[in-house]
């Protein structure tokens, strides 16, 4: 933080959308916040149901005991001890239900924000950032799009990306500009090229936001190397770009070199924090990163709870949006997280022990998937896949050029549309697999089609949709049976 105080933070106000600029603070929340400052202040101002009338006295959630040697295995097999995480309305606990279930600031309760800020500090050590709660990364992302995007704005993203979210920006009038990828994720030099060649006269404002999924990129499963992250951050500085770091798979990393001696000496938290990837947030001296974390993939998607870490200026604007829309996240989740991370629950060290154990189990499933893939699919030479380092996805390449009906048109630079029948054949294959009882997500679902037709027109993404996204999170049987169908289906399809 010494460095951060020396470096002047850039003015980020130009990044705000007209909506964010026009937004007024929620006036009632503003007065409410003032009332919170001085303890003992009598608040007769708010329509807050009285806590003695909440029909909830306590909340008990049964969770795996964190004292098991390998808590995920013990829990999965059903042999493990359990522990109960309790919150009370009136009795002492980490966060009373009296507080958790009341109205509060949109950013969430201080107790929870502080706990997550501490988690962040020990993992990313971000210079000068604020933590605010979300209802998961989908909520956080869609709010960030509104915060930063005006009709006609262009945002950068990976050329295959999580379309469920990027589609949410389209009605806001935001254009997506795809950056080329290889097996290691988005290619920094292509990002630079797009920004450097951007013609504001014909294409409008140069992109000022990058949406990226650095770990287990959805759908390609790639994880950005530290080298690429550094390059991307530097390009973002050079061109004054905000980085939306959507990182729900961050905690699910494989082949980690976790030191037993570090665990013994300093505990699980330190041992994991030492080996988890460096985030964009961790290098963010400018305050241009908005990092989105979620409990969805490490606890459960139904948690609907996540946290956004960003510069105080952007956090304040984001909180204004939340204060005037969804308001603070549900009290149940905030109470549960407080107890779970607190001294009567798993604690932060126990939380990391759970995460480490979860990584081992998903790593085992990934290894099984790759083994079965090797045995039942790859042998034919009709498909191939890289082993993912994190998350849940395998990006399977279909070697369509081996198909008897695969056609390529004459290459000419002027051609803007597809130059092969890749998309048609993939559609056929998708339907064939469906008939055989298998669903894999076709790459076309995730392909960002560049509508401006300029720099990217040679990228011909429709000719590069010969991939499926598959996940290895299912049971061993799902993996064995699914890939058996896949292998057979592929052979039949190619011998057409
Ligand atoms: N509409 C009106 C008229 C209200 O008075 C309130 C709460 N004060 C709300 C909406 C917000 O309600 P909720 O807590 O269900 O979001
Ligand atoms: N972002 C990415 C890249 C995802 O893969 C997902 C979940 O599938 C989400 C966001 C949504 O996460 P959440 O459940 O936290 O809203």
TrEMBL record:
Needed cofactors:
pyridoxal 5'-phosphate
Entries under InterPro entries matching the protein: Aminotransferase_I/II_large, Class-I_PLP-dep_aminotransf, PyrdxlP-dep_Trfase, PyrdxlP-dep_Trfase_major
**Which SUPFAM superfamilies does this entry report, sorted A to Z?**
PLP-dependent transferases (SSF53383)
Q: Which UniProt keywords apply?
A: Aminotransferase, Pyridoxal phosphate, Transferase
- The protein's superkingdom reads Eukaryota
A single GO BP annotation from the record?
A: alpha-amino acid metabolic process
What Gene Ontology molecular function terms does this protein carry? pyridoxal phosphate binding; transaminase activity
- Ranges for domain Aminotransferase class I/classII large come to 94-456
Family assignment? Belongs to the class-I pyridoxal-phosphate-dependent aminotransferase family.
Check the record and name the PANTHER family matching this protein: AMINOTRANSFERASE (PTHR42790), KYNURENINE_ALPHA-AMINOADIPATE AMINOTRANSFERASE, MITOCHONDRIAL (PTHR42790:SF19)
Put simply, this protein is called Pyridoxal phosphate-dependent transferase
Organism expressing this protein natively: Boletus edulis BED1
């Amino acid at each position: 933080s010494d460095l951060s105080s020396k470096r002047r933070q850039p003015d980020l106000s130009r990044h705000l959308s007209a909506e964010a600029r026009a937004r007024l603070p929620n006036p009632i929340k503003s007065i409410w916040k003032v009332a919170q400052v001085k303890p003992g202040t009598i608040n007769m101002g708010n329509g807050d149901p009285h806590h003695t009338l909440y029909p909830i006295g306590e909340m008990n959630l049964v969770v795996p005991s964190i004292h098991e040697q390998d808590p995920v295995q013990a829990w999965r097999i059903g042999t493990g001890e359990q522990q109960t995480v309790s919150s009370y309305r009136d009795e002492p606990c980490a966060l009373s239900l009296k507080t958790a279930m009341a109205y509060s600031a949109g950013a969430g309760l201080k107790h929870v924000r502080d706990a997550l800020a501490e988690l962040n500090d020990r993992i990313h050590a971000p210079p000068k950032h604020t933590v605010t709660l979300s209802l998961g990364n989908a909520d956080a992302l869609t709010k960030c799009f509104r915060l930063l995007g005006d009709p006609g704005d262009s945002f950068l993203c990976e050329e295959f990306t999580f379309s469920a979210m990027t589609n949410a920006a389209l009605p806001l009038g935001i254009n997506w500009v795809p950056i080329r990828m290889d097996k290691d994720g988005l290619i920094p030099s292509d990002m630079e090229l797009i920004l450097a060649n951007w013609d504001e006269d014909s294409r409008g404002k140069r992109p000022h936001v990058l949406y990226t999924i650095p770990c287990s990129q959805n759908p390609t499963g790639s994880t950005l190397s530290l080298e690429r992250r550094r390059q991307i951050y530097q390009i973002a500085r050079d061109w004054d770009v905000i980085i939306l770091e959507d990182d729900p798979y961050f905690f699910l990393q494989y082949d980690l070199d976790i030191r037993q001696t570090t665990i013994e000496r300093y505990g699980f938290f330190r041992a994991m924090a030492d080996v988890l990837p460096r985030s964009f947030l961790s290098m963010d001296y400018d305050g241009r990163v908005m990092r989105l974390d979620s409990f969805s993939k490490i606890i459960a998607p139904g948690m609907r709870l996540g946290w956004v870490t960003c510069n105080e200026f952007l956090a304040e604007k984001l909180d204004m949006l939340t204060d005037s829309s969804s308001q603070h996240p549900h009290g149940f989740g905030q109470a549960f997280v407080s107890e779970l991370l607190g001294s009567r629950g798993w604690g932060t060290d126990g939380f990391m022990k759970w995460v480490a154990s979860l990584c081992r189990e998903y790593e085992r499933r990934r290894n099984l998937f790759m083994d079965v893939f090797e045995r039942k699919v790859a042998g034919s030479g009709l498909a191939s896949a890289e082993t993912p380092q994190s998350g849940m996805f395998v990006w399977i390449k279909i070697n369509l050029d081996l198909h008897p009906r695969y056609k390529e048109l004459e290459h000419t630079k002027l051609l803007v549309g597809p130059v092969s029948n890749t998309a048609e054949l993939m559609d056929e294959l998708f339907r064939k697999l469906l008939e055989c009882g298998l669903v894999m997500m076709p790459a076309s679902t995730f392909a960002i089609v560049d509508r401006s037709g300029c720099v990217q027109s040679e990228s011909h993404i429709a000719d590069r949709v010969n991939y499926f996204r598959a996940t290895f999170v299912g049971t061993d049987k799902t993996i064995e049976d699914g890939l058996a169908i896949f292998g057979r289906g592929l052979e039949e399809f190619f011998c057409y």
